[in-house]
Amino acid sequence: MRTMDTDSPSVVVDSTASSAADSRRSIRQYEPTPIPDADLRELLRLAGRAPSAYNAQPWRFVVVQDAALKARLAAAAYGQRQVTAAPATIVMYSDMQDALERMPESMHPGMPEDQRTAGVESFRATFTGQTVEQREAWGIAQSNIALGYLLLLAESLGYATSPMLGFHPEQVKALLGLPAHVRITALVTIGLAAEDGFAPHRLPAESLVTFR
Ligand SMILES: Cc1cc2nc3c(=O)[nH]c(=O)nc-3n(C[C@H](O)[C@H](O)[C@H](O)COP(=O)(O)O)c2cc1C
User: How confident is residue 5, by pLDDT bands cut at 50, 70 and 90?
Assistant: First the structure.
């Protein structure tokens, strides 16, 4: 319940999420310790809990741990050294073609059958006629929600990250053998931090928020 006469939050805030939001920062130096596959799978499962319009979930992930492949990925990312320094780099991309094909699977099984059918038809009607560019721009917007989840969840699980948009998308796609129609959302290096990074610095919230 929200009360009008207090500045305190009116909801119980999950301390793990709030402390992760406060402590997270980009880290570009990492310990060489590999990340257990189980941790990566759990992280990406949880990141996939992100909501998306139509529940379309167009995000896809490739986890790159192979040293030779990481070196080539770093070259495609303007030589950014965090890619080779981190034990893993997650390549996030949007695949709306696959999302379109899997729409019946994405619709909630608890919905009445006629609503599920209508949802699939509405999704297909919206996106089938669009260009790849148009539909992947939408897919990237959805995927960025999962990117935010991923960064916050990694922090809460004890892993440092650095998200990156500085790369040649076509080179990254060619390296990983990704289909031409997909669009890369971001690269995310991940591992145990070997530097403090910069303390988070943000514009004051009060300068970004209005209440009416
Ligand atoms: C989508 C996205 C792309 C970014 N691309 C790069 C990048 O290519 N190289 C880099 O060093 N940092 C990159 N950053 C890191 C930002 O510079 C950083 O998040 C921002 O300055 C805030 O710092 P903090 O993450 O330490 O709080 C990126 C961040 C985001 C969210």
Answer: very low
Type of residue at 65? Q
Ligand 1 pocket, 80 CB below 6 A?
Answer: yes
User: Whole-angstrom Cα distance, residue 43 to residue 120?
Assistant: 28
Would the CB of 26 count as within 6 Å of ligand 1?
yes
Per residue in 101-158, pLDDT tens? 999 999 999 999 999 999 999 999 999 889 999 999 999 999 999 999 999 999 999 9
What distance in angstroms lies between residue 114's CA and the mean position of ligand 1's atoms? 44
Question: What residue's CA is closest to ligand 1, atom 4?
Answer: 164
Architecture of domain 26-195: 3-Layer(aba) Sandwich (3.40)
Ligand 1 near 156 CB (within 6 A): no
Of residues 199, 198, 193, the one with CA closest to residue 158? 193
Mutate to test the pocket of ligand 1, among 25, 81, 165 (most ligand atoms within 8 A of CB): 165
Residue 71 burial (10 A CB sphere; 0-12, 13-18, 19+): exposed
Protein residue with its CA nearest to atom 19 in ligand 1:
26
Q: Which helix (H) or strand (E) holds 199?
A: none
How far is the CA of 183 from the CAs of 8, 137, 178, in angstroms?
Answer: 41, 8, 9
Nearest CA to ligand 1 atom 9: 164
